[in-house]
Amino acid sequence: MKAVLIRRYGAANVLQYEEVQQPKIEPTQLLVKVRASSVNPIDWKIRKGMLSLIAGSKFPKILGLDVAGDVVAVGSGITRFKVGDAIYGSTSFPGGGYAEFAAIPENLAVLKPTNLSYEEAAAVPLAALTALQALRDQGNIQTGQNVLINGAAGGVGTFAIQITKALGAQVTGVCSTKNLDLVKSLGAERVIDYTQQDFTADTAQYDIIFDAVGKRSLSQTKKVLKPNGVYITTLPSPEVLLESVLTALLPGQKARFLFEKPNVKDLLFLKELIEAGKIRVVIDRTYPLQELAAAHRYSETGRAVGKIALAQPVVDIAVSN
After folding, report:
1. DSSP 3-state of 138
2. Tens of pLDDT along 291-302?
3. Are 127 and 307 in contact (CB under 8 A)?
4. HSE-up of 277 (CA within 13 Å, CB side)?
5. Residue 211 and residue 205: Cα distance in Å, rounded?
6. Is residue 175 within 8 Å of residue 197, measured between CB atoms?
7. Are 200 and 221 contacting, i.e. CB atoms less than 8 angstroms apart?
8. Inter-helix orientation angle 155-166/264-275, to 10°
9. Cα torsion for 206, 211, 217, 220, to the nearest 10°?
10. Of 315, 271, 312, whose CA–CA distance to 34 is shortest?
11. CA distance 114 to 284
12. How far apart are the C-alpha atoms of 127 and 256, rounded to whole Å?
């Protein structure tokens, strides 16, 4: 099969489109013909060696944590899927989705939302799960609360707006001038243009501040956070790590960070919201798999609106039981 792999950590040019052996599945895995994947910042952070302590030094590596595709074989212990099912979900860390075929654990996959294309479905798992778990699990979001989302036009942010609305809270989105209309269209009642205004100097206060781009800290946002509010970030900097420890021991405002944990229950919840029309997927650009290096470079600019998808051509595939 064709895949994009790395044989060492480094810049985008270490990504190589090559012929490799098709993965062999374990009893609890699905063999999936990958129709689409997506690019998340964690993918190029792994590629650059920023997460080498947990990604390890064994090469080659096929990255890519998001997958949508068709089941072509099932392990002997599989009970929820059959050959031919269209699924979406996550690969095991550090990836495997940047390939024609991927071995997907059964407990990280569900049936694809019926109203999404493969590219749209592949854009969902990591980013939407991050938003859901940050708001629901770390923020304990409640109906009627006021939530501010910093980085509202990004991959995680576009999902966070819609999930906040679906869970009954009010949204203020922070984004650049060119994305104001998009953020409003996704459900934000109020939008702050960060090129014109610093949201930390605002007069409003929020129950939850979700920093989906990891640009701030509790100390920088505490003036606009309610006395018992929660600051949540996707990037656990040393400052945030210290704040999370200190605030866990004291009453009042909390600082929390999130490591997304893919699971069937949450993927099914997102599927229900998508099929109910409460979440739509925003895709900035779609690249073919062999142009993954260009997709990584674009993601690294930080200017992507919504998600970056990777599409693979539909070809005839052999299926087995």
Report:
1. helix
2. 999 999 999 999
3. yes
4. 0
5. 15
6. no
7. yes
8. 80
9. -50
10. 312
11. 21
12. 18
